[in-house]
Amino acid sequence: MKPLKVVLVTVLAGSISIGTAIFGQKWLGETPLVEGLSDRTQSRLHTLPDFRLTDLDGREVASNAWAGKVIVLNYWATWCPSCLEELPLFVSAQKALKDSGVQFVGIAVDRAEDVRAFIAEHPLDYPVLIADLQAVELSKKLGNRLEGLPFTAIFDRHGRKVFSQLGPMTESELQTQLATLVAPSARRSASAD
């Protein structure tokens, strides 16, 4: 290969790498390599906003219905295998922690009739709401930049987001996140179950 071609290929490869790094970070919402490239912190939410979604009976439910509680907001769907794997963990945690002020809330990114059929066979003991476009946008603002499922966000009793994760949660991850938010006596009784 001629020296000029080697230089051109090297410059082209370097340009592609730098461009990918800058725009890849922009796409993923990471801090840009070039200072001032964009400021996405304004669009990110650090507190649970007021929102209204319908439940499986078609009733509108407002997010302030759980004010003063630790809220575990979980986006899921009946067609998502990872989502279905973590649901039993959330059901047992809701049962164990309901008296300690922890409220799980499912947001199904699915058709209401599919969710109703699923819940008829696999009951959930916490509210399930049906996502709309605003709910999907809310998940992005809460940290779900890839819009994947399952996605979980946890809020303290003051509505401040303390955790978010794309992908299924394990029991130890959930316990770790809730440990500092739940009273010690409630944690002991939950571990005894």
UniProtKB/TrEMBL annotation:
Q: Which InterPro entries match?
A: Redoxin, Thioredoxin-like_sf, Thioredoxin_CS, Thioredoxin_domain, Thioredoxin_ResA/DsbE_sf
TM annotation in the entry: none
Q: Where is the Thioredoxin domain positioned along the sequence?
A: 42-183
Q: Which key words tag this protein in UniProt?
A: Cytochrome c-type biogenesis, Redox-active center
* Intracellular or extracellular location(s): Cell envelope
Domain of life according to the entry: Bacteria
- What is the predominant subcellular site recorded for this chain? other
Question: What name does this protein carry?
Answer: TlpA family protein disulfide reductase
Its lineage opens with: Bacteria, Pseudomonadati, Pseudomonadota, Gammaproteobacteria, Chromatiales
